Amino acid sequence: MPMPPHEIICYAPGCGKPAVFKIAARWSDGVTRELKTYSLSCADCRDVLFDQAMAKKGTCRLTTGETLSEPEVFDLVRGRRDHDLMGGPKPNQPG
Predict the structure, then answer these.
(1) CB-side exposure of 69: number of CA atoms within 13 Å?
(2) In this model, does residue 73 exceed pLDDT 70?
(3) Is pTM, for the whole model, over 0.90?
(4) Which residue of 9, 12, 32, 77 pairs with 45 in a disulfide if CB–CB is 3.0 to 4.6 A?
């Protein structure tokens, strides 16, 4: 019998609301591709957590052959893997 889905909570301290976004950047080492997750966020905390992700991205060190894109906001969709998620515009910018 499958386990019931658990609620994913926003990463913002003290928030406690359900997360609806993944804030992540596309990472690759030239062979493997994946999303580097910075935060899971509710709609209210998205902009603050996105700004934090941009600051964290600036401190990442990459080795030869690695690439890391700018953070994006992805809709968090239950049952979808990272490579199936669609990124959107940066917060506070037209789509």
Answers:
(1) 16
(2) yes
(3) no
(4) 12
